[in-house]
């Protein structure tokens, strides 16, 4: 009976998609994907299938890798090593309703980027995705030697046999924070670190996680907007202003014939169990099952709406991975107690590896391989 209900729902979804196309929405969607500048939905195929609409299904062939074979994975993401006892979260594969994602082919990925460079730019969620990709690539060709180095805030993972660099630049806000006599200032209109991003072949940006921090976790004392210095301001408004500064950098500095630009999207946390209807729970602690994409609709994330608005304003082509909706279903995917801090530090923001960021990289691979 359950499978019948699912199939009827999927048929209904397909019917609505066809109706949208008949009414002209489908045409606009194709045009939006193929336009020269502005937002490109990286999770949409040229045939109009939306990768972001789907469900998590059990797959006995998962996970895609064993972190014990990737000693470079940060301890805070290696939940099995940290004693997490349940294993179902490792066995879930993202299945779009109307099509199939390509199986990740790490050797093909490396061949496509032979002699090229890839850089993740952002906060620790970018670190999460970068570590996932490096492990996926190492697992695909374990005989290929790798080199790993860190220079300041830049981490460089190299596959010499392919001459491929996969880098991570830690930059939580994308815009600048400077030290002044008055204190640390978050400058919404200044972006000096972009010098590091030039001439990279593939850029994947992300920022959001740090914008809501307060107290000791807040790394600034003032926010500067133009010539005005604020003690604080609406964080979502500040976020949009900073993204607009980044957008101007993309339009000014990116050559689309040489560099492809992605924005990761907003990675959701699961700190409040009432958001998924669990009145007894407080956070992601003890969560061992994903939510059902057919019955649970979290609604749009406010920050994701800002990202879409800003990316849509960019004249150069920028691909949006849009990881938000599929990740909202994975309340089970966080380290919780099994991160770097044990029971002293509950982590419902980052993701266990292997885990959800692997799917983000499959979306990245799908977008690259179909272009």
UniProtKB/TrEMBL annotation:
Domain Trichome birefringence-like N-terminal positions: 48-100
GO cellular component, one term: membrane
InterPro entries (UniProt xref): TBL (IPR029962), TBL_C (IPR026057), TBL_N (IPR025846)
Main location, first listed in the record: membrane
Signal peptide: 1-24
One GO molecular-function entry: O-acetyltransferase activity
Topology in membrane: Single-pass membrane protein
Domain Trichome birefringence-like C-terminal stretches: 101-366
Locations listed in the record: Membrane
Record's keyword terms, sorted: Membrane, Signal, Signal-anchor, Transmembrane, Transmembrane helix
Protein family: Belongs to the PC-esterase family. TBL subfamily.
PANTHER family: PROTEIN TRICHOME BIREFRINGENCE-LIKE 9-RELATED, TRICHOME BIREFRINGENCE-LIKE N-TERMINAL DOMAIN-CONTAINING PROTEIN
Protein name as it appears in the record: Trichome birefringence-like family
